[in-house]
Amino acid sequence: MSGDDRNAGPSRRFLLQSAAAVLAAGLPAVARAQAVVPRPLTPEAAAKLNALPGKAVLGAPGTPPRITELVDFNAADWRRSALDMRELLAADARLAYAVVQAPRFDVRSLEAARVALAVLGKGLGPFETFYLDLAEGTGPIDGVVALAAAQRAELDRSQVFNLSIQPQHTEDLSRAAALASALGIIDTPVYVIGGQVFAGYLDLARKRALLSTAKP
Known about the structure:
The chain is α+β, with helices and mostly antiparallel strands. It has one domain (3-26, 36-213): Glutaredoxin, CATH 3.40.30. The chain has ten helices and six strands. It has helices spanning 3-7, 12-23, 43-51, 78-91, 107-120, 124-135, 143-152, 157-164, 167-183, 204-213, and strands at residues 39-40, 56-59, 67-71, 96-101, 190-193, 196-199. It has a six-stranded mixed β-sheet with strand order 1-6-5-3-4-2, sandwiched between helices. Strand 3 (67-71), helix 4 and strand 4 (96-101) form a beta-alpha-beta unit. The radius of gyration is 16 Å and the shape is globular. The model is unreliable at 2-14 and 19-34 (pLDDT under 50).
C-alpha cells in the first residue's frame, strides 16, 4: 500500500505476517480440476460455512443464500463471475447470493480481501457498489486498488484502511481458509449450490440452471 496508508496504521509487514498465518491454515495440495464436476457438500464443510463470519449476502434481504461463492479478486475468472452475479440478482428478486473472501493468489489478494471485509462492515449497499466497481475494472487488485474502489463507494479511505488491519479480519480469513480446506479446494472460484460444491468457473447459463432447482 502507499506511504499514506502505512502511516494510518501498522505497516505492510503486518499484512505479510497475516498472509503467512492465513495461507498456513492447512490447505490441501489439490490441483485445479480440468472440468467442473460437482461433489457433495460434507457435513463438516456445511457446518463451517454456516458458522463463517464475514459472508456478504447480497440480494433478497433476510433470505438464506441459494448460492455461495468463494472469491479471490485476482483469480482469472473472478470478474466474469462477479458480473454474472449482477445478472442473476437483477433477474431474480428472491435470490440471495453469498460472497466469501478466500484469497489464494498472493499478498495482493489478501490486502484486497481485508479491505473488502472492512467495506462489508459499512453495509451491504457500499459493499455491492465496491465489489462491482472492482469487477468492472482491469488489472491486478491489491490493497491500494481496493481502497480506491472503497473511496468511489463514498467511504472514508483512511477509516476503511484502519478497519482492514483489525485482527478480527485475520480470524475471518483464517476461518475461510479452513472452509476451503474442508471443501477440498485450493483455487477459486468455488460455488456451493444446492448442497453441491463446484470448483471452477460456471458460466451464467449453468448457474441459472442449477439455481432453478436449488434450495437454500
